[in-house]
Fold:
Amino acid sequence: MAPSGPGSVRRRCRRVLYWIPVVFISLLLGWSYYAYAIQLCIVSMENIGEQVVCLIAYHLLFAMFVWSYWKTIFTLPMNPSKEFHLSYAEKELLEREPRGEAHQEVLRRAAKDLPIYTRTMSGAIRYCDRCQLIKPDRCHHCSVCDKCILKMDHHCPWVNNCVGFSNYKFFLLFLAYSLLYCVFIAATDLQYFIKFWTNGLPDTQAKFHIMFLFFAAAMFSVSLSSLFGYHCWLVSKNKSTLEAFRSPVFRHGTDKNGFSLGFGKNMLQVFGDEKRYWLLPIFSSLGDGCSFPTCLVNQDPEQPSTPAGLNSSSKNPENHQFPAKPLRESQSHLLTDSQSWTENSTSLGKGKAGMSNPALTMENET
Structure:
C-alpha cells in the first residue's frame, strides 16, 4: 500500500476542521438543554403547571430542531445522473482534439436530448471539466465537496454539507425550528432574566445559566430571523442563493425570474403537494433535481416540447429517466394546462422557424 502523501494528509485535516462548526452548534445545543430544562424549568420554576407546559413545548421544539438539523447534515447532496456524463468516446475526443469546433460538436451531440435550458454567459453549454459532465439546469460545482450538486444553493459550514435539491427543504425547516426554539427560550426566560437583575433569584449557579441562556437565545433569534426571512423570499421567487447573486442565463438571455412559476407553485416545488409532510423533515420536493419547469414565454426552441401529463410522474430523487420532453409530470402539473403548453410551444416553434442556431462553445465553469 502506497504511503499517504502530504496532499492526502492536508485533505484529512481539512475534513476534520470542517466539522468544528457542527461540533460547536452541538455543544451549544447540549448546554442550552441543560440550562433550560434543568436549571430553569426544574430548579428555578416554582409553579408546577408552568413547568409542565414549558417542558412539553420545549421538548417538542428541541426534537424538531435536532431532527431537521440531523437531516440537513447527513442527507447526501444529489449529483447529476449518468445521462449527463460524457461517454468514454466523447471524453477521448475532448482530450485529443484542440479546443474548437470538435469540442462544440461533441457537446452539441451530447446535450441535444438532455432537458437543459440554461447556458453560460457567452451562450455555451455548461460543462464541468472536473466532473466531466454537462451540468443540468441549476447545477453547480462545489469547490469544497469537489462535486457537481443538483440545484445547489450554497455550501453551509454550520452543517458541513452542501445545501441543494436533496436537503433544501430540511435546511429551511432547520432554520424555522431553530428560530422558534430560540424565540421560545427567550420569551419564557425573560421574566427570570429580569429577576436576575432585580435580585429576585436565589444566589445559585442557576442564575448565571439563566442570564447567558437569554443572551444567547436573543442573539441567535435576531440572526436566524434575517436568514430565515431571506430564504423564505428565495423560495417565493424560486431562486437559489447562487441565482440571487447571478441570474441564470437562458438561450434568449439572462432572466432572473426564469424558474419562477408564481408564489404557490414555487412553494409546492420545494415542499411538495402533500401538506402532511410540509412541517416534517421528510423529503417531499417535486421533481428529480435534473430538470425544472421554466417560464414558457421564452422557451428554448432547441429543446423538444410535448404536452404535459404524457409521461409518468417521478418524485423519487434516485429515479433518473429522461424522455424526449424536459419535464416530469410531477413538475409539469405546476404549470398551466396541457392546452396552453401546446399552444405556447407551437407558437414559439413558428416564431423561431428559419432561425439558425448560434454555435455552441465550451466553457469551463465551476
